[in-house]
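Suppose you are handed a protein chain with no further information: no name, no annotation, nothing but its sequence. What can you learn? This example shows the usual starting point.
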Amino acid sequence: EQAIERQETQVEEHIEAFGAEHAETLVMRSELAYSYWQTGRHDDAMAIEEDVLEISERPPGSDSPGTLRPR
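A reasonable first move is to predict its three-dimensional structure. Written in structure tokens, the prediction is:
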């Protein structure tokens, strides 16, 4: 349980620093979901994974690093 609490704190801090849609944040959230799943917190795991999937499937915005073009 302490490991999950640490993961939760790290995810919260990463969201504050980089935002909820940052690629590394999504990976960290997915890893937290896996930990939840392994400890029987299936509903929590599924909620996170559904959110991560929804964000990941969005098309990149015009300010996304992958879509910026030199002028």
